[in-house]
Structure formats: structure tokens, C-alpha cells
């Protein structure tokens, strides 16, 4: 991308004009959530001023219109991830709810002594639901280890997997190290043993091309807010045959076919898993975010973010006493860079960067087992997006040097 093109993109994000302690905002906390372009912000206003109505129930014009837009976004997501049927797209609150949905709806399949495999790299939301399921069912949670760079040790995975394994749940891209995991190998190997696979793709949309059919994955989950869309909405993709087989998650309106006091039958997919009024606005607005991403092109976004990452690694590795995590193989990395500085506390460094107007994430990054692995309390994480610039990385570099100098003196 030319500088002019990036400036054009930046101009679509009003928040980037904000001053933080009289400095320009440098927003590099995109792995937590991305900023929203005008077309997404505007879509929310348009929805409430011209479409607002409940879906799927009404005969009247507005209800038909809101239903049409919601179902249209379902189809858009189906296309975006190359799912076979739009009914395989279940709207949820986000990645976390999608994982909880699967862990709950699949629990009837898990028996004492069964095994579930996750990895050392997981976000808490891909640990705790499985841990609870295992403890309820007296099943065992097995963990794929990583090497010192944070790469999954696949030879151990081959050792852990067996006929006892019922579910394998792994992230596609680590939210801490930005490592892109070899999920296709893991999916294929798991299927050889009859295990189902859930991939936590929270860090993926707009960072990698997604093709759930090609991956042959059983469940794939992600949130809208990390791809320029609104918070409070995300999806569970699941293979039709498997979703049909699972129990419903929440129950109530929308997910039923017939209700009597003796018995209830459930709706077909996707509504069986969508109890209650959905986040109609969130879904419709998300559609605009997908249009935004597709207009620029996932591949172009991916390419640009990789350039930013490569530049950041090159620059930051020059800092004396910096500890960068995640290894040096850029082919295996997405646009996330986590680090620590000498013996300095990550909160102290983060607080000073904040004073310079730089938004980074600090702390355990929702991955305490991974922090324990590296024997640290936390890390500082910079994560890039399409609106970030090389100049912002220069500014980050200078600001880290200043923070270090200040903190070592005091
Ligand atoms: N998994 C990973 C890898 C993530 O990065 C995140 C968000 N930080 C989540 C799960 C949870 O996503 P959400 O908060 O949108 O449910």
C-alpha cells in the first residue's frame, strides 16, 4: 500500500484523530479489538433510524426487512468463510459464547475417562469451558506443549491423541505470540482418531483467508469486533450434520418448533441455537465491516500487516534488554508482537507508553498458563491493523527507549 492509500484508510476511522494527553493516538491494541470505520458507525444509526424491528416473527414490513438484512449477513459470512450452508452459521455474542455453546451442547457425548486436548497457547476462553466440562464428566484435559519460541510440539500431539480423545480445541492464531498454528495437520490427525475439532479463530478474520470446508474443521469460532465490526456479536460455524446432532444451548423463544406443557420440539438450524431476540443491530452492522474488509481484500490486509510486523520486529530487536516472544520465523506469525523490557514491570512500561498516546495491551493477556510457561507475570503486546503506519512503529520504538531510560533511573 502507498502512504496515500493508508492515509485514505486512516481517514475512515474517526477515532484516530483523537488526542491522548495531547499526543496523537497510536492505537496498536488491535488484537483486543479493532477500531471502526465510518461506514460501520453510520450503519448503526441507519439501522435504528430506518429498520429497527424484531426478526423472524413479524409479518409486517419492517420485521420482514430486518429479517432480510440479518439473513443476508448470515449468507455474507457463509461466503466469507466458505461454508457449505448458511444454516451452519450460528450467531452468538462472540468467540467466548461460541466455545461455551459447543462445550455445553456436546457434553452429553463426553464420558468418564474421555479426553479433551487443548494447548499451552490458549486464551482463557478456550481453556475454562473445557476444564469445567472435564471436571463435570470426570474426563481428562490434555495439553499440547510448546517449545521456547511458542511453537506447538506436534510430536507430543501425536503422542497425546488416541481413541479416547473426543475433542481437540486449538487457536488458529495465538493472541499473545501471533503464531499461526498448523491447524490443518491437527484437524486431519484428530479425525483419524474420530475426535471433533474446534478452532478458535478470534485473531483470524481479516488476517488470514478462511476456508472452513478446505480445513474440514468441525467448529470454527470468531467475533466481529476484531475485524472492524461491533462488539457483542460473533459466530459459531459448525458442520450441519454435527450441529443437528448436538443439544440446544439456551432455550426459549426463536429456537422452538412446537411447545406444549408435555413436550417441546426444536427449530431447524440455525435457529435451534439462537434462543431469544438476537443482536439484530450488531449482525446488520457487522455486514458493513465485512464489506469494508472485502473491499480492501483480506490478502492485501494480510500483506500490509506482515510488513508492519517485520518492520516492528527488526526495530524493536535493536533495543538493549528487550525480550521478544514468538520466534523469528515470520511465515508463522500474524501481526502481533509481545515483549518485556529488562526486569521492568509491564504495567510500568505500558503506563508510560499510554502517556505518549500509545495504546498497547499489558498483563497476562488472558493466557496465564502461557505467562507461567515463560515465567513472567505479564507481557506488553503491540498488535497492528490496516490503519497503522511505519511512522507509528518508529514512534513506539522511541517511546520504549524513553520509558526504559526513565524507569531504570527511578
Ligand atoms: N480467543 C482468542 C485467541 C482471543 O484473542 C480472544 C479475544 N482476545 C478470545 C478468544 C475471546 O474473544 P471474545 O472476547 O470476543 O469473546
From TrEMBL:
Keywords linked to the UniProt accession: Pyridoxal phosphate, Transferase
Pfam families, per database record: Aminotran_5 (PF00266)
EC nos: 2.8.1.7
The organism's place on the tree of life at top rank: Bacteria
Statement: the UniProt record of this protein carries the keyword Plastid: no
PROSITE patterns found in the cross-reference section: AA_TRANSFER_CLASS_5
Protein family (similarity comment): Belongs to the class-V pyridoxal-phosphate-dependent aminotransferase family. Csd subfamily.
Physiological role: Catalyzes the removal of elemental sulfur and selenium atoms from L-cysteine, L-cystine, L-selenocysteine, and L-selenocystine to produce L-alanine.
Protein name listed in UniProt: Cysteine desulfurase
Amino acid at each position: 500500500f502507498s502512504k496515500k492509500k493508508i492515509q485514505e484508510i486512516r481517514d475512515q476511522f474517526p477515532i484516530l484523530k483523537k488526542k491522548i494527553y495531547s499526543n496523537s493516538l497510536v492505537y496498536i491494541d488491535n488484537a483486543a479489538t479493532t477500531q471502526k470505520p465510518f461506514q460501520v458507525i453510520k450503519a448503526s444509526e441507519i439501522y435504528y433510524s430506518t429498520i429497527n424491528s424484531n426478526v423472524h416473527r413479524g409479518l409486517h414490513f419492517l420485521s420482514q426487512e430486518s429479517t432480510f438484512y440479518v439473513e443476508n449477513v448470515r449468507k455474507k459470512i457463509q461466503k466469507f468463510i466458505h461454508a457449505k450452508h448458511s444454516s451452519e452459521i450460528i450467531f452468538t455474542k462472540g468467540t467466548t459464547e461460541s466455545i461455551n455453546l459447543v462445550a455445553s451442547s456436546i457434553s452429553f457425548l463426553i464420558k468418564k475417562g474421555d479426553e479433551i486436548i487443548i494447548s499451552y497457547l490458549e486464551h482463557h476462553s478456550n481453556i475454562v469451558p473445557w476444564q469445567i466440562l472435564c471436571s463435570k464428566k470426570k474426563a481428562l484435559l490434555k495439553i499440547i506443549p510448546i517449545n521456547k519460541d511458542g511453537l506447538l510440539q506436534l510430536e507430543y500431539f501425536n503422542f497425546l491423541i488416541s481413541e479416547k480423545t473426543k475433542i481437540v480445541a486449538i487457536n488458529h492464531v495465538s493472541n499473545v505470540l501471533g503464531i499461526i498454528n498448523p491447524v490443518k495437520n491437527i484437524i486431519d490427525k484428530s479425525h483419524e482418531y474420530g475426535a471433533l475439532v474446534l478452532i478458535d479463530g478470534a485473531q483470524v478474520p481479516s488476517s488470514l483467508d478462511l476456508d472452513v470446508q478446505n480445513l474440514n474443521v468441525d467448529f470454527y469460532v470468531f467475533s466481529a469486533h476484531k475485524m472492524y465490526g461491533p462488539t457483542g456479536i460473533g459466530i459459531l460455524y459448525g458442520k450441519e450434520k454435527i450441529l443437528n446432532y448436538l443439544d440446544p444451548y439456551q432455550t426459549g423463544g426463536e429456537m422452538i418448533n412446537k411447545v406444549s406443557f408435555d413436550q417441546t420440539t426444536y427449530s431447524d438450524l440455525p435457529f435451534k441455537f439462537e434462543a431469544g431476540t438476537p443482536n439484530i443491530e450488531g449482525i446488520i452492522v457487522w455486514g458493513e465491516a465485512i464489506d469494508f474488509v472485502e473491499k480492501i481484500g483480506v490478502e492485501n490486509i494480510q500483506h500490509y500487516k506482515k510488513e508492519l510486523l517485520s518492520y516492528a520486529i527488526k526495530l524493536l530487536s535493536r533495543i538493549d534488554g528487550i525480550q521478544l516472544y514468538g520466534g523469528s520465523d515470520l511465515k508463522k506469525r500474524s501481526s502481533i508482537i509481545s515483549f518485556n523490557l529488562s526486569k521492568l514491570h509491564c504495567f510500568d512500561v505500558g503506563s508510560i507508553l499510554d502517556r505518549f498516546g500509545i495504546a498497547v495491551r499489558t498483563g497476562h493477556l488472558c493466557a496465564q498458563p502461557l505467562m507461567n510457561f515463560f515465567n513472567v507475570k505479564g507481557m506488553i503486546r503491540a498488535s497492528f491493523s490496516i490503519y497503522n503506519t511505519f511512522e507509528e512503529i518508529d514512534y513506539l520504538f522511541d517511546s520504549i527507549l524513553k520509558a526504559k531510560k526513565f524507569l531504570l533511573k527511578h
